[in-house]
Specification:
The chain is of the alpha+beta class. Helices cover about 10% and strands about 25% of the residues.
Amino acid sequence: MAEFSVVSQAMVTLTITSSISSFGSERRFDKSISVGNLKKKLELITGSNASGMQLSLYSKDEKEVVTFLDDNALLGSYPVEDGMRIHVNDPSLQAGEFEDVSKASPII
């Protein structure tokens, strides 16, 4: 197995968006994290299951740069920079699924 190392800033600030939610979230991630572990962190942010996630990286001018295909690759092995966006697509969930308050139980 090849050994990788990060030779730029250790942390990166990214906006996280998803096909499930209409709002984004800004987060900082260590570039030495694997894509698989990044997906696990994104579960808490997006509500999507890591195994069903499809991640795409977008530039500051909203052009798709790359799709993350290798869960063992390091985040820093991709051309990721501060201000970019990771979009989480999960075809198993519907858009707005976690925003529909009509499905919530009333507080008594």
